[in-house]
Design brief:
heterodimer; A: alpha/beta; Peroxisomal Thiolase, Chain A, domain 1; 9-stranded mixed sheet; two-stranded antiparallel ribbon; globular; B: alpha+beta; OB fold (Dihydrolipoamide Acetyltransferase, E2P); 2 domains; 5-stranded antiparallel sheet; 12 helices; 28% strand
C-alpha cells in the first residue's frame, strides 16, 4: 500500500521572476532571474542539484522542445533534465517530478523550473496553435475564454441562475484578486478595479468579459526540493513540506458521456479529494488556510471553490459575494493576485502558486502576509472544462 | 422510361437586400438601382456547392422513404474541386452505399438538364439522385451580382412511384457563346443581353421545343408549366408568346427573392413546379447553354399523395434577412479581409489522418456499444461508459439525422472566425451521445442552454495556401 508523499520532501528554496510583458527578457533571462533567487534562498551551489524537471507549455512560441533550454540557460552540469508539458498543469508537473525523484531516494536535491514567454506572439491572449492532426479536423476553433464560457453556461443552467447574479459574482472574484495584486510587486497587474468596470467590460466570449480573464504575461518560477533530513543538516528551519501532490486527467467521460452535465470540473473534484486523503485532511474548510487556484477566468475560480469543497454545490455565488475568499475571508484565495494579476505563463504558473504559499508559510509575504497560515492548496486546470488536467498540491509546515 | 419520383431543395437562409446592394454600388452604375428590389440568397461563409447539395439531396432522400439509390449525379459549374469527384463527397456526407454510381456533370448552364436526360433515358432498374447546386461568384458591382443567387435542388429518378412521367426529350447542341468562363478565370465573361436573347434564346429554344412537341404530339397551349432558366426577366414570356404557350404557364425565375441559381435553376424551378402541379399537368423543362435541352413531363396521380420533406416553398420560408452587402463580398472572397493574426495559422489538412477519420468527419458516424448500449461520438476503441469500457464493441451510429439540445455555449470574439463571433458548445443528442461542436448561422439572442438544434454539413476551414477546404458537421438552432 502506497503511503503517499506527505512530509517526505521539503522545499529548500524558491524563486520567482517578475511577471509581466517582459519585452526585453528572453526565456533564458526569466529562468535565470527565478533561479538566482531560488539558489540564494536554498543556500546551495548549483552543482549540488542532481536532477531537474523543466516545465514549458507551448513549444512553438516559447523555448522549443526538449530539456536543453533549461540546461543551457542555467549551465547545469550535464545532470539529467526532463522536459514536462501537461497544459496549464505544467509548472506543477515539473514540481511533481522533482519531488517524486527526491522521495524515491534517486537523488537528494532536485530542481523544478517552469517558464513561459507568451508575449512573443504579436497579439493578445494565448497563442493560436494546432491541437493535433485529428483534433484540428473537428474541434471547434475554441479560444480559452470560449472554452471556459461553456462552464458559465453549464453552471448557470444547472443551478437556474440568472445571468446578472452570476456575472456579479464573477466580477467580485476579479475585483478581489486585483485588490490583492496591488500588494504584490512581482504581479503583472497592480491596480484595483471596480465591480462596475468588470460587469460592464466588453464580452470576449459571452458571458466572459475582459475583466473575467486573467492576464497574459511572461514569467518563470522555480523550486529546489530535498529531504527533511538534508534540509535540517543544511541549517534550515521553519521547513515547508509537501503534504499532497495529485493529478487527475480527463479520459473523455466529460466530453462524451452523459454522466457529466457541464456545470463543474470533474477532475478537480477527484484530484482534490485524493489530495485531502493524502494530506490527512478531513475538513478542508477548516484545515486549508489559503488557496491559489487556477483563475484563468473568474468563472473557473467560482466553480473551483465548490469542487474543492470550500463552498456548497450551487452556492458558489453566495460564498463569493459573502467574501469567503477575500483577503480577510475564511479561506483567502489568490492572496498574491492570482493568475488574474500575474497572468498565466503556462509553464511557470503552478510553481508561482507554490511560491506564494511558501512565502506565506515562512512569514515572508510582506504587505499581504496572512496571520498564522497552516495549509496552502494550489490548483491548476489545463485544457477545457469538458476535457482537462487538474493538478493539486498542498504544502504546509513540517 | 424512368420518371421523377421525389424531390428536395435548399436555399441558403441568408437573403441579402438588393436595395442595400444597389445603394452601395449605384455611384458606379446608376442602372443597378432598377434592380434594387427584393432580395437574393447568399451562401454563408461555410456553405458552397457541396454543402448545399448535401442539404437538397438529404431533403429528397427523406421524402423517398425506403427507396434505394444506385446512382448520384451532381450538376454544377461551381465545383469546389476540379479533380476530386465532388459527387462522391456528397454521397459520403449522405452515408450512401459505396457501390453507388457517381458522376460530376458541369461545363454548361444546361448541365443539370443534360444529366436529367441521361438518367431518365437510363435503364429502368436505375434509381438515381440528381443534385444540382450552384454557388456562382460575380464581380462586385455587376448586374450578375444583383440577378444571381445560390441554391441547390435534387430530384430522384426511377420507375416506381413516379410523380412526373416523361413524355419526350429533345436536345439541340450549338456552340453559341453567350458567356464563358475560361480555366484560369474567376468570373464569367458575357456578351450583350439583347443579342443573347435574339440570337440565342429565341433561336435555340424554339428549335428544340417545337421538335419536342411534334415528337410528343402535344400542342403548345396544353403546357401548364414552362421552365426557362435565365436571368433575363422578359425572355421567358417572350418565348412563351413565340411558341404559343400560355403566359400563365411561365414559371417565375425568382429573380426578386432568390436570384437565378445557374446550373441549379432548372431543377430548382422543377421542384417548385412539382410542389404545385396537379395530376395530368404538363411541365416543359428547358435548359439553355450551348444549345438547348427540352424535357416534357406529365404529373401523375401519385403526385397528389407525395409528401416532400423540404421543397422550394419551405426552403424559401427558412429565411434570415441580411442587409450588409459587405458580407457578400467577404464570404465570396471578393475583397481582401483582415483576419487578425489568429487567422494566419496554417490550415494544412493531413490527408492520411483525414482519411482515417472520414466516417466521423464526412458521414458523422459515431458508435453504439453492443455491450451497454451507450451512444457516443467520436468513436474510440474503448467504450466511453465508465461502467463498461468494452474494447471494439461499437457499431456504426449515424448522428447526421439526429436533433439535439444545447448544453453549454458561448459567442467567442477572440478566436478567428469568418463571421464572428464564433458560436460553439456542447450538444446533447436526442437518443444519446454528445459533442463539443460549432454552431453556425446563430442570430444574437437566439441561443441558450436548452435550445434545440439540428446538424448540417458545412465548411469547417479553408486552406488557401493549398487550395483545400475541409468540411464537418455543425449545429443550427431550430426555430
Amino acid at each position: 500500500m502506497a503511503s503517499g508523499i506527505k512530509d517526505k520532501v521539503v522545499i529548500l528554496g524558491m524563486g520567482c521572476s517578475k511577471f509581466g510583458e517582459r519585452w526585453e527578457s528572453s526565456p533564458s533571462d526569466l529562468m535565470v532571474e527565478a533561479f538566482e533567487e531560488c539558489l540564494g534562498d536554498a543556500g546551495i551551489e548549483r552543482d549540488q542539484i542532481e536532477a531537474a524537471w523543466f516545465g514549458a507549455g507551448i513549444d512553438s512560441f516559447n523555448v522549443g522542445s526538449s530539456a536543453m533550454p533549461l540546461a543551457i540557460a542555467l549551465r547545469l552540469n550535464y545532470i539529467p533534465v526532463t522536459k514536462v508539458e501537461n497544459m496549464c498543469a505544467t509548472g506543477t508537473e515539473a514540481f511533481r517530478g522533482a519531488v517524486y525523484a527526491v522521495a524515491s531516494g534517486a537523488c537528494d536535491i532536485a530542481l523544478a523550473l517552469g517558464v513561459e514567454k507568451l508575449k512573443d506572439t504579436g497579439y493578445g491572449g494565448l497563442p493560436q496553435r494546432t491541437r493535433g492532426v485529428e483534433n484540428d479536423m473537428y474541434w471547434p476553433n475554441l479560444s480559452a475564454p470560449g472554452a471556459f464560457a461553456q462552464l458559465a453556461s453549464g453552471y448557470r443552467a444547472k443551478h437556474h441562475l440568472n445571468k446578472d447574479d452570476l456575472k456579479r459574482a464573477m466580477a467580485h472574484v476579479s475585483v478581489k484578486s486585483h485588490a490583492n495584486g496591488v500588494k504584490n510587486p512581482k504581479a503583472h497587474l497592480q491596480r484595483e478595479i471596480t465591480e462596475e468596470q468588470a460587469v460592464n467590460a466588453p464580452f470576449i466570449a459571452e458571458p466572459i468579459g475582459l475583466f473575467d480573464c486573467c492576464g497574459v504575461s511572461d514569467g518563470s518560477a522555480c523550486a529546489i526540493v530535498t529531504t527533511p533530513e538534508i534540509a535540517r543538516s543544511l541549517g534550515k528551519e521553519n521547513l515547508v513540506s509537501v503534504k499532497a501532490l495529485q493529478l487527475a486527467v480527463s479520459n473523455g467521460t466529460e466530453a462524451s458521456h452523459e454522466s457529466w452535465d457541464g456545470s463543474y470540473l470533474k477532475t478537480t473534484r477527484i484530484a482534490s479529494q485524493r489530495a485531502y486523503t493524502e494530506a490527512d485532511i478531513s475538513k478542508p474548510r477548516e484545515e486549508i488556510t489559503m488557496t491559489e487556484v487556477h483563475d484563468c477566468f473568474s468563472i473557473t475560480e467560482l466553480v473551483t471553490m465548490e469542487d474543492l469543497q470550500l463552498a456548497d454545490e450551487g452556492k458558489g455565488v453566495n460564498a463569493v459575494l459573502d467574501g469567503n475568499f477575500d483577503a480577510d475571508g475564511n479561506t483567502p484565495c489568490q492572496i498574491d493576485g492570482g493568475l488574474k494579476c500575474f497572468g498565466h505563463p503556462i509553464g511557470a504558473s503552478g510553481l508561482r502558486m507554490i511560491y506564494e504559499n511558501y512565502l506565506q508559510l515562512q512569514g515572508r509575504a510582506g504587505a499581504r502576509q496572512l496571520d498564522n497560515p497552516k495549509l496552502g492548496l494550489n490548483h491548476n486546470l489545463g485544457g477545457f472544462p469538458h476535457q482537462n488536467i487538474c493538478s493539486i498540491s498542498i504544502v504546509g509546515p513540517l | 422510361m424512368n420518371g421523377i419520383t421525389a424531390y428536395g431543395a435548399y436555399i441558403p437562409r441568408a437573403r441579402l437586400s438588393k436595395q442595400s446592394m444597389a445603394e452601395t454600388n449605384a455611384w458606379f452604375d446608376a442602372g443597378l438601382k432598377s434592380l434594387g428590389k427584393g432580395e437574393r440568397s447568399i451562401c454563408n461563409w461555410d456553405e458552397d456547392t457541396i454543402t448545399m447539395a448535401v442539404e437538397a439531396a438529404s431533403a429528397c432522400r427523406a421524402a423517398m422513404g425506403e427507396q434505394s439509390v444506385s446512382a448520384l449525379y451532381l450538376a454544377s459549374t461551381t465545383f469546389p474541386f476540379l479533380d476530386r469527384q465532388n459527387s462522391v463527397l456528397v454521397a459520403e456526407a449522405l452515408n450512401m452505399d459505396r457501390t453507388l454510381r457517381t458522376m460530376d456533370i458541369g461545363g454548361s448552364q444546361r448541365a443539370a438538364t443534360s444529366a436529367l436526360i441521361a438518367l431518365l433515358e437510363g435503364s429502368d432498374e436505375t434509381s438515381a439522385l440528381l443534385v444540382a447546386s450552384e454557388h456562382r461568384r460575380s464581380k462586385a458591382g455587376s448586374r450578375a451580382e444583383m440577378l444571381w443567387g445560390d441554391a441547390a435542388a435534387a430530384v430522384a429518378i426511377g420507375s416506381d412511384n413516379v410523380i412526373a412521367e416523361v413524355l419526350g426529350i429533345e436536345t439541340l447542341a450549338v456552340d453559341f457563346v453567350d458567356h464563358y468562363r475560361g480555366d484560369k478565370a474567376s468570373f464569367d465573361y458575357g456578351w450583350e443581353d439583347r443579342w443573347i436573347r435574339d440570337e440565342g434564346f429565341m433561336k435555340s429554344v424554339p428549335t428544340a421545343v417545337i421538335a419536342l412537341f411534334e415528337k410528343c404530339s402535344v400542342s403548345s397551349e396544353e403546357i401548364d408549366y414552362f421552365i426557362l432558366p435565365t436571368d433575363q426577366a422578359r425572355t421567358p414570356m417572350g418565348l412563351a408568346r413565340k411558341l404559343g404557350i400560355d403566359g400563365d404557364a411561365v414559371v417565375d425565375n425568382q429573380i426578386s427573392n432568390v436570384g437565378v441559381t445557374g446550373a441549379a435553376q432548372s431543377i430548382l424551378l422543377l421542384v417548385k413546379t412539382l410542389e404545385q402541379a396537379k395530376a395530368g399537368d404538363l411541365i416543359l423543362v428547358t435548359g439553355f447553354g450551348q444549345g438547348c435541352d427540352a424535357i416534357l413531363l406529365r404529373a401523375t396521380k401519385a403526385i397528389t399523395d407525395f409528401k416532400p420533406a423540404q421543397g422550394v416553398s419551405r426552403a424559401l420560408a427558412a429565411r434570415r434577412e441580411e442587409t450588409n452587402y459587405n458580407k457578400l463580398l467577404s464570404f465570396n472572397n471578393l475583397i481582401e479581409r483582415e483576419t487578425g493574426k489568429r487567422g494566419e495559422v496554417d490550415k494544412q489538412t493531413y490527408l492520411s489522418g483525414y482519411n482515417r477519420r472520414k466516417d466521423l468527419l464526412t458521414s458523422f458516424i459515431g458508435g453504439k456499444c453492443r455491450e451497454c448500449g451507450t451512444v457516443q461520438i467520436p468513436r474510440e476503441k474503448y467504450c466511453v461508459n465508465p461502467e463498461c469500457n468494452a474494447l471494439d464493441s461499437q457499431d456504426d451510429y449515424s448522428f447526421a439525422d439526429k436533433t439535439g439540445t444545447v448544453m453549454t455555449w458561448t459567442a467567442d470574439r477572440l478566436t478567428f472566425d469568418w463571421n464572428p463571433p464564433a458560436y460553439f458548445g456542447m450538444v446533447q443528442f436526442d437518443g444519446g451521445g454528445k459533442l463539443m461542436m460549432d454552431f453556425t448561422e446563430v442570430e444574437e439572442g437566439s441561443i441558450d442552454s436548452g435550445s434545440k438544434v439540428s446538424v448540417h454539413f458545412r465548411i469547417r476551414q479553408f486552406d488557401p495556401q493549398r487550395g483545400f477546404r475541409k468540411y464537418f458537421w455543425k449545429a443550427v438552432i431550430e426555430e
